[in-house]
Specification:
Number of strands of chain A: 0
Largest interface: A-B, 72 and 72 residues
Strand content of chain A: under 5%
Structural class of chain A: mainly alpha
Helix content of chain A: 55-70%
Oligomer: homohexamer
Largest sheet of chain A: none
Order of helices and strands of chain A: HHHHHH
Number of helices of chain A: 6
């Protein structure tokens, strides 16, 4: 599979792209820029916007960083996105996800996908007590 | 919307169905059986199998119960399952999910759905370092 | 929910639309035209094309009509399409689907949605013996 | 693509895993354990639960085994799961699915995916007569 | 259906939320803030980030605004998102989408969903000449 | 990956298949028949029906051909269909889609997938003014 655009190497990156790459390196405390950002860099505005959004969303908050990565991973697997399933699995592992935790996450992803369709296909009406959340 | 089968009331439940309902009540420490199980009870074998599986998957393990409920919720929202999104949001709240935590979860669900499609559409090749997980 | 276009009544249907409605009635041996076709009739070319295709696909062949309706239903549930899940469930019932058969269909839909995600998330490689089909 | 966990060989399988593998071999009257179960075997609890559920769901019942495999296949294709589409196509063929039957199944899968989106996009209201099923 | 959070009225909006609402009104030359933004306003950071991103993405560029709205609509229908299908259909109409154009869009959405599954299910290999894009 | 059926070469095509291949070549002003049609040709009825439908849907109309290809592409990416994402990206490029236009299309696909889930997960009620379309 060839990417829609070639990945942008550091040597050919524009100053605008370099600034984002530098922020990724600094934020993640790494020298490695993964393919997602290098391919996205063909559209600097999208690179900047998506990185900025991701950085904000994944920053420490009410949920701890490992939980955030596992939520990201569960969604990516549900959507069948091979790239994100690979990258966020490794990211979650880097934040402490053990094999046992990954197996439990997978069991939940599988179970939820099963009951989602059972609820839909049986047309189960939402219980009154589930109507209001906050 | 009418469910495919009418919900089974306690008064008309077979002993097999009652046994599952009792286990749900005991496991969840509640007197309330939600519509999902009452509709599923029209097929006692499926009721028993799905409840047994769910109970096992959601039991305490390497992940804490709140994280499990939030993973379930994130998958259900991604699949657009209204019933499960309602029921698991309430379940997660019951286990301690605050409005702030829900908002962070939603931000991640939205972001992951965005980058999943960007990775797919740009056909980003999986980085070699993401190939192996465990 | 209001449909994107109002349903077309017999009294206001153009000759082109009437011809399709007549063919639906004749093919299905009924006087009832369901909402799907009446809304689609706002675009006569699409009405004609989609009805023609559906008629061909659902005609008796190597698979019997009940099996065809159940396949249609399983796909519609998987896609979360409420309209098609309702209409094809009734159509399948009209061709002989019992409550027991529907329950088995639902169990398979649920199970397949579960294992589809397990296979994806665990990135299970396709066995060599599954590579060739026909 | 590397699987998330390495497949478990017979020689390194725990007694718990061996028991499931033996049941798969006996139930399917084969000596071959496919990759799905060997990768799942890294989490023996999930292996046992999912195999137990699948065995129950796919057992002879009101629907014949070939119909069950074709329903499984139609769902797997709709979800874009390459592994399950491959394995259940071969399983269906083993139960008698001919090339002609597969082609009819594919025609239905395609048609249903088309009309599912037409019904959604045109927001077709569910006909009153489709409201009740059983 | 009750929203997860109540919509935020102008009278109770914080200055941060008001600033976004004002920018929406100015950018869209309207006094109306639709429910999506009012519900999102319960999480001001997400409101600001998502609105900022949407404003950038939908701004005039190489594609004209009507084409952008129709792309948005086609994706929303494919995902079965009722809210976005409604809001972006009206937005597209406001930019000049006629009934005829909407019907053509729907025909394409339906056809693409059909052939997407045919290509997947028949496992059609990508032609060499389709490998490289830019 | 091996296709479910081998692609049909010109030399082994039946007269019925040849007639469709000839129409594809004439309509598209090319000598090249891509793999999708060659694999589909194993089921001549489906080949004829799907090609006939696609030809009608993609013919010049109220929307210009480039817009039609981009809508097709946006849907295919959203569905994660690798084959159609490749083939329709090349087709769109052949009709004038520049790298800049593709990047804008991708930004919209990503954004729509994000807000689709935000609207679903926050259960945003459809505004009254969005209820009626045509």
């Amino acid at each position: 599979m060839t990417s829609a655009f070639p990945p942008i190497a550091d040597s050919t990156a524009s100053p605008e792209v370099c600034a984002v790459f530098d922020d990724i390196k600094k934020t993640r405390d790494t020298d490695y820029i993964n393919n997602f950002w290098r391919v996205l860099a063909n559209d600097p505005a999208t690179l900047k916007r998506v990185w900025g959004g991701l950085k904000e969303v994944m920053a420490p908050g009410a949920l701890d960083p490992l939980v955030k990565e596992m939520l990201y991973l569960a969604v990516s697997i549900t959507n069948g996105c091979a790239y994100c399933s690979h990258s966020h699995a490794v990211a979650a592992k880097g934040r402490g996800m053990t094999a046992e935790m990954f197996s439990e996450l997978m069991a939940i992803v599988g179970m939820a996908n099963q009951t989602n369709k059972l609820a839909d296909g049986y047309r189960v009406p939402v219980d009154e007590r589930f109507e209001n959340l906050f």
